């Protein structure tokens, strides 16, 4: 089997799939032969444009809200009736805001809760709702897109760091609980060249990259390559963290 069809016959759901890391992952998995369901929240037009650009396959889009578990239940019902099983779930959607760690006034209780719901409960809701379809695969994998913020405690804000630490911990717990039918891994990037953190431009990324061992900006494709490796090559791994940061954490 060539790299171009290594995922032939497999179905993948990607939350946050219409932009950034999610969109890069949708392209990479489709290129490898998978059918892809692109999860989006606000931009149906962008999701549809991505879907129509993907090579071969029965690709779809689905509106998903990290704050609404019912949206994942509806997707689960759709997969059960139309596809029968789900082989790959990539939880790429998330939320943050750039706030200095000392600025506790700006990081309100309500905003803290919003970040936790998006970055921790949202992936949990997706896994919980889609678990029957994942188990039906018999060889399913969940890849949670985390961050080095989860173990360095340096990132866009205090709540974001806490949420990614919780996501890493939850991944390990569920890996223990859901094996052998379902493997779970986290991919933890450093700063990535996307618009995920408002106000962080290319110049800032390039300047900070100079202080890392590899001295390179991490691109969405770097992260999507790691996600593909989790699916196709790390068959004996579960509950592990794959760091993609050019050595920034060292």
**Under the CATH scheme, which class?**
Alpha Beta
Shape: globular
What share of residues are in beta strands? Answer: 5-15%
H-E order:
EHEHEHEHEHHEHHE
* Strand order, largest beta sheet: 3-2-1-4-5-6-7
Summarize model confidence as the mean pLDDT: 95
Number of DSSP strand runs: 7
How many helices in DSSP terms? Answer: 8
Rg, nearest Å? 17 Å
CATH-level-4 superfamily name: NAD(P)-binding Rossmann-like Domain
CATH topology: the name is: Rossmann fold
Helix % is: 40-55%
The assigned structural class equals alpha/beta
Uncertain residue ranges: none
Q: How would a crystallographer describe the biggest sheet?
A: 7 strands, parallel
CATH architecture: 3-Layer(aba) Sandwich
Total domain count: 1
Overview of this structure, please?
- With 250 residues, this protein is α/β, with parallel strands linked by helices.
- The chain has a single domain, classed as NAD(P)-binding Rossmann-like Domain (Rossmann fold).
- The protein contains eight helices and seven strands; from the N terminus they run βαβαβαβαβααβααβ.
- It has helices spanning 20-31, 44-53, 69-82, 109-137, 149-152, 158-178, 202-209, 220-232; strands spanning 11-15, 35-40, 60-63, 88-91, 140-145, 182-189, 241-244.
- A seven-stranded parallel beta sheet has the order 3-2-1-4-5-6-7, sandwiched between helices.
- Strand 2, helix 2 and strand 3 (60-63) form a beta-alpha-beta unit.
- Helix 1 packs across helix 8 (220-232), helix 3 runs parallel beside helix 4 and helix 4 runs parallel beside helix 6.
- The longest helix has 29 residues, at 109-137.
- The chain is globular and about 50 Å long.
- It starts with 10 loop residues before the first strand and ends in a 6-residue tail after the last strand.
